[in-house]
Design brief:
Layout (H helix, E strand, L loop, with lengths): L2 E2 L1 H10 L10 E2 L12 E3 L18 E3 L4 E6 L8 E6 L14 E6 L3 E5 L5 E14 L5 E9 H8 L4 E2 L10 E6 L4 E16 L2 E9 L13 E4 L5 E8 L12 E3 L5 E2 L5 E5 L26
Parallel strand pairs: 1-2, 5-11
Antiparallel strand pairs: 3-4, 4-8, 5-6, 6-10, 7-9, 8-9, 9-10, 12-13, 12-15, 13-14, 13-17, 14-19, 15-16, 16-19, 17-18
Length: 297
């Protein structure tokens, strides 16, 4: 997770209004390393599968107050289902969940700026609740909105991004799309960390980017999109900033034998395919559903 976004906002002021700070590295206040990657207007996914893929852009992403995010759907989602916004657990307005903590169905009125393909905010979406949030094993948050997928499509002409139900593959070309910064990073999946440790948190089977995705504070929660399919395969969350070992903003990799590896300047994301089996009818999070392996309270 990145440092609090305060540093990034200060950089904006120093560079001048409208300038995007090239070196901003702070996250949401209290959020781990890349967690604070500012909220971003998310693109609302089509209730029906896409038949023709366009180039990856900002449509369906959202900007949060401190992070990035996206409007997402599963392959089974229906147009009348309440829409879901995906971000990081460390981006929650309630602060970082403690190690071992899982939040389910907590009331929320948080708002999100929805972006179109050009990265322009076209409307405000509102949450009805935090459907799910945790920093245990993974770093994700799912907000249920007061709007359905069909309503977002009808009002803004924007469809939700679809979550890929399959685990991502090494070497896949990806885009990390930050609605907070209105910036797209292009790289590939370099590999996977068996365990990724940062402070008191541990994440399993994390995606490691190649160095071209040099994400910064405020990009936390950005959808990681497969170039070939246009589907979301992960959610951006952290990176090793200073070369320190397993500390806040300096995650380390731990392999199955316990060997620790530090990769300064390398960034990471959390896989999202495991979410699909946990989303039931009406966008309800069902942690007892067959195949759902998300941590339980």
């Amino acid at each position: 997770m990145r440092k609090p976004l305060l540093g990034a906002l200060l950089a904006v002021l120093l560079l001048g209004a409208g300038a995007a700070p090239a070196m901003a590295t702070s996250h949401d206040a209290g959020a781990p390393t890349k967690a604070v990657r500012a909220d971003a207007a998310t693109r609302v996914a089509d209730p029906a599968p896409r038949t023709q893929l366009a180039a990856v852009d900002f449509a369906g992403t959202v900007a949060l107050s401190n992070c990035s995010g996206s409007v997402v759907r599963t392959p089974q989602s229906q147009p009348t289902d309440p829409a879901l916004v995906l971000s990081n657990g460390h981006c929650l307005e309630t602060g970082f969940p403690a190690a071992g903590q899982v939040i389910v169905d907590r009331a929320s009125t948080r708002t999100f700026t929805l972006l179109n393909s050009a990265g322009t905010g076209v409307g405000t979406l509102r949450a009805s609740k935090i459907a799910y949030g945790t920093m245990t094993d993974t770093d994700i948050s799912l907000y249920q909105l007061t709007s359905t997928y069909a309503q977002i499509q009808s009002t803004y002409g924007i469809t939700a991004l679809e979550l890929n139900a399959a685990r991502p593959v090494q070497g896949t070309a990806i885009k990390v799309v930050s609605g907070y910064w209105k910036r797209i990073y292009s790289c590939s999946i370099d590999g996977f960390a068996y365990l990724l440790k940062e402070g008191s948190w541990t994440w399993k089977d994390s995606v490691r980017y190649t160095s071209a995705c040099n994400t910064i504070g405020g990009t936390s929660g950005s959808p990681v999109i497969d170039d070939a399919t246009g589907k979301v395969v992960a959610v951006n969350n952290t990176g090793n900033e200073d070369g320190a070992r397993c500390t806040l903003n300096n995650p380390c990799e731990v392999d199955a034998n316990g060997t620790v590896t530090v990769r300064q300047g390398i960034n990471y994301a959390q896989e999202t395919y495991g979410i699909v089996a946990c989303v039931s009818t009406g966008s309800r999070i069902d942690l007892s559903a067959a195949g759902c392996t998300l941590p339980k309270p």
